[in-house]
Write a sequence for this structure.
């Protein structure tokens, strides 16, 4: 039985940065080839970055991507790496359109594809069949489906190709792949992180291994792209579903593993309609010492995974957009404390700047908690009192009550944006998912900023993450970043003297459970009440959620960590009457 | 040949307002029945309002819609209107899902459907086959396709049913409909306004008339729903494509027309697989005097159509969300002048409030032009000078240059939001499409507001609309609403002394043409240059457009009037490197 030495390159592409991405790709192929790899694979759209969204409908972008793909093949050859077959995701277009095809989006002019490169050329292209069009995905909008199965004949083995959603759907594709009896099913993915998603990927892949009686290699991207975080976590199972190798999460990785596969069935020859066999030439390198790398330590602590996902999402937004630094308001509360800790973990304390903006209503402890936080994190903090900025506006316009409360938050927003304009920082907004759900923030006030790191983190989880982060520091004998007082004190927007959140909302544990039912699980009002919640409270919370839609539409993006994040996961009307 | 008296009810439903929508529906059926209609039709999703977006994936909403549909049928019967068949759009669900169907979005649990009601019951349901998933639509995300053709046998005639996109796609549905030889094809629609779209609808419908050899009735919704404006403009053609009747645009209407149709082929009996024939019972009312209403005066002036679309979009956002009034900043410039005029046309001058917010840099003429505008429109205007609000912030933070310029805009934003909080107005933001394209606005400054009436109007068109609106007033011997000075003076953001827009941007006619090429027509950089533009300018403008994506994401919604409006029409990454 031939041994296939498979190299899975788990990369973090930067969207549109062709030259940067290709430099990185070259490096990974070099490294894989030096380890004797028979086949090197990259993730879904690894050439361009992912998702490309409506860029897929722009011919210029598609022409450029194809040009760069061809150029990559040439450069690999020139670098003496031409003999190693490479599989890489890219957008395949622009396609000639049939004038009116009822099944396709009229603006879709490309396939989501994988190219096979060798000897300076593109040997073949596989087009993704199943185009996800739910959750955050709009692939039916932007791509046309493929209809052919690809088998790559390499090193005496048959390797079937699939892309992401392809293995999530039953139907003709998986059946055809099984019928071809490949030794390996190589699936390249752009699969975003969601808490507990790994609990779904592994069983799914095991099912496909059983169905195809083949090894299955699941290769994912890693890195942040706007609101999505690709968590890596690539892995390989054998035909019995046994886990053979696994990459870590949240970092780039090259996973090289030897797979003992059955002989090829195709021998590189075409096998019939609906199948494309790509013959890569060359034989197995006849590997002597079998490589079976130990699967990466799997971190089962969800809180740690979420923290790392948030850090990566934030870091990549900063780095990929070339921001020099971050700035955020420090209220002494838990939300800004967690955001500050994430920021420091993401880009280092010398590039994170805090601003304390006390008013007449800020408690003494909130100022000292902000200073304590800054001290623990080692970040610069400045104080900009707001009272003398607030009162001229308040007096000129004659404001009180809600208008005066909101004014304070908006003056704070102006301070942060002014410092951003003057000094070049990216402003972070520190709102959590619970307050975004019920609209409990001042638009153009505390919601101001370019990125919202905990936008998809419910309040109860914010506390959990804060506690976990301190525990993690303790375990390593490092300074606990978040002041205990910020964790234990009751939350308050501090817009009025003595104001506490609980005065107007249910307890957070009740509220978060209610929101999870209504938002994530899409339960209706009666079903939420049936779970045991107080009916008038349910009605009030639902009303707050629905009426906050317009604010959410104007909010900054932030990393998705749940199955239902505000934004592309949840597209609802602003003008909507709940009657 | 039997005469079918067809009543097309062009209604303006309010999303989610079941009781309000049903009261209106009852009224239209009553009126149609009193005119002897054989069949009364309503538009796509007329029961619920449209589009319902992800509400289609929420079982509670679907159960409610079905309940209300059944209730409507019962109420019609109780009101003595049971004998008149009614066709009405609604969401048909929740459906039992097959566990994993490769063709469907896993969250789609409903059809986009039309129900046939009579005698207190739902006689049949047609499910839309072709689900648009491009432009602003996400119907493949939210619905599952139908697969059966419906023929309604009424008054001795066969009436085939289709919904919107169904007639835009060639394929099995249209062929099957043609094969059934109906006398009439009734298409119910939720077709949003786009300038020059009527030039496409009528030829399309004529083609379908020729293909089916049937009369075709095209019934549309009317009204604003968030960023979409449904323009009505329902019409009927005969089998030769001759226009028989037409509703006006932008207003509700009941169009009753007698159609001389061929005898039924089905006679109410089923005709085979893939077809559902709904027998409505009763015969033609044997109409004596044939009704052939004169087609509504068709307004061919695009500027007037656009103005009316903008007014309707704004009015409905205000009314449907129950805002008592509008407030906006009046700079003396053309953008705020046009927005103010739209606002007054939408809801009346007693509910529109202007705020002049001069700084030290505002020219004398801008203040007087603002007063002149307010006087012409008959709206209240107040003046809130900003210098003493700006300087404390400027001094405390030590701001100058861009930061100081942006501060002024943000103080103005705070004033408008404060007055909104205090007095209950909806704030309008007055940005036009050109400045939104190049990011030439201060986020959280002039971009502040809940609705953006001219968001999809390029600067050059803003001028055209202003001139048209003054002409229209002149023709009716009314006061021209927009001061001539606001139209003729060079535009300026007035953030620096003597600052003019042209100092940093190409002339607006050049810029708008460039943006149309890059944005609407999706041309690439080289193609735009090839149109004859200066290459460095193209590069600079493209860079501005790409880098402004994050600002656009946070912008207020406003009415779509073009084929490519920022927002759901154009989904592009924020993190994107143009290399």
């Amino acid at each position: 039985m031939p041994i296939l030495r498979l190299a899975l390159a788990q990369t973090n592409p930067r969207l549109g940065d062709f030259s940067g991405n290709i430099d990185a790709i070259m490096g990974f192929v070099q490294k894989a080839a030096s380890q004797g790899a028979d086949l090197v694979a990259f993730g879904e759209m690894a050439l361009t970055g992912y998702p490309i969204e409506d860029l897929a409908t722009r011919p210029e972008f598609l022409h450029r991507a194809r040009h760069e793909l061809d150029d990559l093949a040439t450069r690999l050859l020139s670098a003496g790496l031409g003999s190693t077959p490479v599989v890489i995701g890219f957008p395949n277009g622009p396609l000639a359109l049939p004038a009116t095809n009822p099944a396709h989006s009229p603006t879709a002019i490309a396939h989501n594809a994988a190219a096979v490169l060798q000897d300076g050329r593109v040997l073949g292209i596989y087009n993704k069949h199943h185009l996800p069009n739910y959750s955050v995905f709009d692939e039916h909008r932007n791509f046309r489906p493929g209809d052919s199965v690809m088998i790559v004949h390499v090193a005496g083995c048959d390797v079937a190709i699939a892309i992401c959603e392809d293995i999530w759907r039953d139907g003709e594709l998986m059946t055809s792949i099984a019928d071809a009896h490949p030794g390996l099913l190589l699936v390249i993915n752009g699969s975003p992180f969601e808490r507990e998603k790994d609990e779904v990927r592994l069983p799914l892949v095991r099912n496909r291994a059983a169905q195809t009686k083949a090894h299955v290699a699941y290769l994912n991207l890693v890195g942040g792209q706007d609101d999505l975080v690709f968590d890596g976590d690539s892995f390989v199972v054998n035909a019995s579903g046994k886990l053979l190798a696994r990459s870590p999460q949240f970092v780039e990785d090259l996973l090289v593993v030897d797979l003992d596969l059955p002989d090829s069935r195709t021998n590189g020859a075409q096998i019939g309609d609906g199948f494309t066999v790509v013959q890569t030439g060359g034989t197995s390198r006849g590997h002597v010492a079998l490589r079976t790398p130990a699967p990466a330590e799997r971190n089962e602590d969800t809180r740690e995974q979420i923290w790392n996902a948030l850090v990566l999402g934030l870091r990549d937004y900063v780095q990929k957009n070339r921001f020099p630094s971050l700035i955020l308001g420090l209220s002494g509360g838990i939300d800004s404390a967690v955001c500050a800790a994430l920021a420091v973990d993401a880009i280092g304390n010398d590039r994170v700047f805090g601003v304390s903006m006390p008013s007449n209503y800020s408690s003494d402890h909130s100022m000292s908690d902000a200073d304590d936080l800054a001290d623990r994190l080692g970040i610069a903090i400045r104080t900009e009192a707001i009272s003398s900025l607030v009162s001229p506006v308040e007096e000129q316009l004659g404001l009180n009550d809600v208008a005066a409360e909101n004014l304070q938050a908006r003056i704070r927003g102006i301070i942060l944006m002014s410092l951003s304009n003057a000094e070049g920082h990216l402003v972070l907004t520190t709102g959590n998912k619970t307050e975004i759900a019920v609209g409990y923030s001042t638009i153009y006030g505390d919601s101001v900023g370019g990125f919202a790191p905990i936008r998809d983190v419910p309040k109860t989880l914010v506390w959990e993450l804060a506690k976990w982060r301190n525990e993690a520091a303790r375990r390593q004998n490092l300074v606990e970043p978040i002041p205990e007082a910020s964790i234990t004190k009751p939350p308050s927007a501090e817009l009025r003297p003595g104001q506490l959140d609980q005065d107007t909302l249910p307890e957070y544990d009740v509220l978060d459970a209610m929101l999870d039912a209504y938002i994530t699980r899409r339960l209706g009002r009666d079903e939420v009440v049936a779970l045991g919640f107080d009916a008038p409270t349910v009605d009030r919370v639902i009303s707050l959620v629905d009426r906050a839609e317009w604010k959410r539409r104007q909010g900054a993006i932030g990393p998705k960590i749940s199955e239902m994040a505000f934004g592309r996961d949840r597209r609802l009307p602003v003008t909507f009457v709940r009657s």
Observations:
- The mean pLDDT of chain B is 93.
- The first strand of chain B starts at residue 3 and ends at 10.
